[in-house]
Amino acid sequence: MSVFSPGFRGRSRPAGHQLPPGQYETDDFPVLSAGPTPRISLDTWTFTIVDETGGRHSWNWAEFNALPQTSPHVDIHCVTRWSKFDTDWVGVSLDTLLEPVETQAEFALAVSYGGYTTNVPLEDLTDGKAWIVHRFGGHDLAPEHGGPARLLIPHLYFWKSAKWVTELRLLDEDEPGFWENAGYHDYGDPWREQRYQGD
């Protein structure tokens, strides 16, 4: 006996969207954090890129917002198995932020207010693949979602998109971050289900 009414075909999926293996689609935006939500004043907020020689390139809030802004329209995928399609952000491309930086580094470590860290190959932050974003869905980014600004790397699991980001350290050698040291995968590709070390 069927439990579905005649004509039921399940929830339609927007054309062109695919779920990575093991994921389900949600319209919500679940809030998951490793610790308390920091409240950062825009008067003291800074974002700094530190190259492998210790050279520093910093922007305060006004300087950051004066940079060219882009509007990524992307799908995001959390390691806890939810995916959200068609998310809209506003922020600054890492290509723009890295433009004045001379580096031979191959890796980066994102550092957040509150001490959270996560690692990523530098090539995954360039060529239009990553941003520092400060608006979501037409509004300023809420603190629980990483505001005033967070890293956005939509092609990797969302723990790599560090909330409350304040620094990007460029490194010659890979340095695991918070969740990577706790057993999460070093890279985190949702299409290969790289959730944990060994996946």
UniProtKB/TrEMBL annotation:
<feature type="domain" description="Oxidoreductase molybdopterin-binding">
    <location>
        <begin position="35"/>
        <end position="179"/>
    </location>
</feature>
<dbReference type="Pfam" id="PF00174">
    <property type="entry name" value="Oxidored_molyb"/>
</dbReference>
<feature type="region of interest" description="Disordered">
    <location>
        <begin position="1"/>
        <end position="26"/>
    </location>
</feature>
<protein>
    <submittedName>
        <fullName>Sulfite oxidase-like oxidoreductase</fullName>
    </submittedName>
</protein>
<dbReference type="InterPro" id="IPR036374">
    <property type="entry name" value="OxRdtase_Mopterin-bd_sf"/>
</dbReference>
<dbReference type="InterPro" id="IPR000572">
    <property type="entry name" value="OxRdtase_Mopterin-bd_dom"/>
</dbReference>
